[in-house]
Amino acid sequence: MINARVNGVTICCATGSRTVATQKSRDTQKSRSKTPDTKTPDTKTPSGAVPSGKIPGGRNPHIGVKGNARLARTSRIAKRKDISRLQRLGNKIYTRGFILAYKNSIGPSSRIAITVSKKVDKRAVVRNTVKRRLREVFRTLKEQLSQNIDLVIIARKEALECNYDECARQISSALRSKRLLP
Fold it and tell me: DSSP H helical segments within the chain, as ranges?
């Protein structure tokens, strides 16, 4: 078996087959790869800390939420039977964009559940946007509530037309009408 190398190609004379030399195949693989050979500079500072306004992975931080100012899991009603019971037996307040069902809470703090059905909009992105707005409204109003309540907010089609300020105004005025907010 005789191996000859010509212009970066190794030829095996015994079998007559040709194989690409290792160096040449590496060069062609690098040129064909989708990612560039050079690494992009790391977003971390020399001390290893992440610069303000950025989080690892290149994603943008949550806009409008500072620090750990998110609605805690303990502030959410998770069980379907609890939500159904509140919708059936709770006191109801009707606004243009929402139906609020509430009942006094037996827990140490107020809790919320938000329902946005496919009747409101078939796109999940739109429904999730409405839910995020309502969660933030509740998070900001939670400390002002005069008593601990369990609250279910059911969105109507008109909720799609509401921006954050309009949602906050409707919900706070509805809660004030029942003297749940000062």
Answer: 22-32, 80-89, 124-141, 164-177
